[in-house]
Design a protein that fits this description.
membrane; mainly alpha; transmembrane; 2 domains; 0% strand; DUF5687; 74% helix
Length: 492
């Protein structure tokens, strides 16, 4: 049956009307993956030298045992963002005498054909063969290979399980990402524990007791079984529908009731974000960018300069406005014609977006207050850039959104996905990047940095207070381009 499934998938691919485009994308992706694997191969071959340079006071085998768990955490984060779910059009087979176990087994088996699963072979196996085998024995080396591959398989099925559960409830993905972020921050930011030490405590003992390789094998088998059972229970579309109907998701937001019709539209926007891959990825990246300040503020090279705080503050409090707002209408492309003939006023439609952006930016500002560790002036700059985002950048982003007529398939992931992206996004980056510095840098050169920040704050406040005026201008601009946008969204 597996060979039959593969033949059917190949026929579906070659008979698709987008075959030419798909082949071009696959060739391009294949070249990128080939180059990436080449770089990883070089790292694997010279890993002993790299570890000796990076950790000169430690034995390279000890250092190697310490980085494996770090790699696996990074691997899981990457899979959750980039790895696509294996798919099979199961509906045509459900009424045929094909056992459910066969269909589910095919889906589970094809999940192993991910380029993430090849990384351990080319990254770790050269070191194991060159160093661990001759020094610790080939029994320990074999145990290492089995353990590393098993944990990679565990990561593979864990990431797929999280993403499948997230299709029913978007909070699963958000919570999982938050847990991984806190787990990483607990070591590198707060120093509550040492991930490298935990990694060595297992893999170091694996050198002495190769039988411990049974543990990751059991973990991989358990996660495979969990995926298999979940897929089998949810194979029928009506079963998924029942679960969605009976499961009370977080689609009711009482706090939005006070905003009336605008609150209803914001609630619908939140549902769109949580239920679809591409907009959910934009929201996830906004959360990830809250850690952006750690790159700059912990770097001694930026200690005596304040301009990075302007840049970082703008992106941490406004990344969602930028990443989500530039595709403001593209998210609605599938039903944009219906939206244009509905009772919803386009002015109210825009006001709802402003309410959503304000809420998310305010939450981002509150979540960045711990950067007071680097001084309260840092929080002050963040607040000023928060005002700048809501009073200036939001209008720039929506102006360029009026010039984006490219549709987006919400069901597709964000990784290597350029749907909706065009020259407009390139042009948008210039005013966003340079506008705040056109005000701040002249005052800073005159040693009047505080005046520059005050001017930016006043401009942001003026923009917020004159919001109705700018919304009217954006509405007029939209109606001038309305038919171009709607026609663009009809082109699939």
């Amino acid at each position: 049956m597996i060979s039959i499934f593969l033949r059917h998938e190949l026929k579906a691919f070659w008979r698709s009307k987008n075959t030419g485009k798909s082949i071009g994308v696959r060739i391009f992706m294949g070249v990128i993956i080939f180059l990436l694997l080449g770089e990883i191969s070089a790292i694997g071959i010279f890993m002993d030298k790299f570890l000796a340079w990076k950790f000169p006071n430690s034995d390279i085998i000890v250092s190697f045992c310490g980085i494996i768990l770090l790699y696996l955490i990074f691997d899981l984060i990457s899979r959750m963002q980039l790895q696509e779910l294996p798919t099979l059009r199961v509906q045509p087979y459900l009424h045929l005498p094909v056992r459910k176990n066969v269909i589910v087994g095919y889906l589970a088996f094809t999940a192993l054909f991910s380029f993430f699963n090849f990384w351990p072979f080319i990254l770790f196996f050269p070191f194991i063969i060159k160093i661990i085998g001759p020094n610790a024995g080939w029994g320990a080396a074999s145990a290492f290979m089995i353990a590393v591959v098993s944990i990679a398989i565990f990561n593979n099925y864990l990431a797929l399980y999280i993403k499948r559960k997230a299709n029913l409830n978007g909070w699963v993905f958000l919570i999982s990402t938050a847990v991984l972020a806190l787990l990483t921050a607990g070591d590198f930011a707060w120093h509550l524990y040492d991930i490298r030490g935990i990694s060595y405590s297992f893999f170091g003992n694996l050198l002495k007791y190769p039988v411990l390789a049974v543990v990751p094998v059991a973990m991989a088998a358990a996660m495979y079984t969990l995926n298999f059972i979940y897929l089998k229970q949810n194979l029928y579309l009506e079963e998924l529908s029942r679960k969605k109907a009976s499961y009370k998701t977080s689609t009711e937001y009482p706090i939005l009731n006070r905003f009336g019709a605008l609150g209803d539209q914001v609630a619908n926007e939140i549902k769109l974000i949580l239920r679809n891959k591409r907009p959910r990825s934009a929201f996830i990246m906004s959360s990830v960018f809250l850690f952006y300040g750690l790159i700059f503020y912990k770097n001694p090279a930026f200690t005596h300069f304040e301009w990075p705080k302007v840049f970082v503050g703008m992106f941490m409090t406004g990344f969602f406005i930028i990443s989500y707002g530039q595709f403001l209408y593209s998210w609605q492309a599938a039903h944009f014609d219906g939206l244009m003939v509905s009772k919803v006023s386009f002015k109210d439609f825009l006001k709802a977006k402003f309410l959503l952006f304000t809420a998310v930016a305010t939450c981002a500002l509150l979540l960045t207050t711990p950067y007071a560790y680097f001084g309260w002036r840092t929080v002050l700059v963040h607040f000023i850039m928060y005002l700048w985002n809501l009073g200036v950048n939001i209008y720039i982003v929506l102006y360029f959104a009026n010039r984006n007529a490219r549709r987006i398939d919400l069901s597709k992931g964000a990784s290597f996905n350029w749907e909706g992206v065009g020259a407009t996004q390139m042009l948008l980056s210039f005013p966003l990047m340079f506008a705040p510095y056109l005000i701040y840098i002249p005052f800073s050169l005159l040693h009047l940095a505080n005046v520059g920040l005050a001017v930016m704050a006043l401009i942001g406040i003026a923009g917020i207070l004159s919001r109705n005026f700018w919304i009217e201008k954006l509405v007029q601009d939209f109606y001038n381009r309305k038919y171009t946008i709607t026609e663009g969204f009809r082109n699939k």
